[in-house]
Design goal:
The protein is an alpha+beta fold. It has one domain: Nuclear Transport Factor 2, Chain: A (Roll), CATH 3.10.450.50. Helix content is 30%, strand content 42%. The protein has four helices and seven strands, in the order H-H-E-E-H-E-E-E-E-E-H. Strands 1, 2, 3, 4, 5, 6 and 7 form a seven-stranded mixed sheet that branches. The N and C termini lie far apart (40 Å).
């Protein structure tokens, strides 16, 4: 399923994540998109790198819960946010407030262009460098 509204990407991300579907997750990104898998390490770009970055999180076998989310669009660009929690067996829960940029595609669907799942965590990492 494809997102026909920018807020749907968040729902589809959680559903694909909880299903363990890395290919489904990767399908939510443009070919040249970037993601920040670790605030201290910076961004990676391109679908192969995104798939590789998401795989360890999916392999944890946890449940991703979206606590709250929002999307604001201006033309073909949207800013999305979500407050999320990942609980996985044998690991401490992870929580953050994300910030993503999505773009409407020519077919009317929406895909991520930039994904920062750690929100302000990237600022703390930058300040620590």
């Amino acid at each position: 399923m494809a997102a026909t509204r920018p807020d749907q990407i968040i729902e589809l991300f959680a559903a694909s994540f909880n299903a363990g579907d890395v290919d489904g997750l990767a399908s939510l990104y443009e070919a040249g998109a970037s993601i920040i898998p670790d605030p201290a390490a910076g961004a990676v770009s391109g679908l192969p790198a995104i798939r590789e970055a998401l795989q360890p999180f999916v392999a944890m076998g946890g449940t991703l819960t979206i606590i709250a989310s929002s999307a604001v669009a201006s033309g073909d660009i949207a800013l999305t946010h979500s407050s999320w929690r990942l609980e996985a067996p044998g690991a401490d829960p992870m929580e953050a407030v994300s910030a993503e940029v999505a773009r409407r595609q020519p077919d009317g669907t929406w895909l991520y262009v930039i994904d920062n799942p750690w929100g302000a965590g990237v600022l703390a990492a930058a300040a620590a460098r």
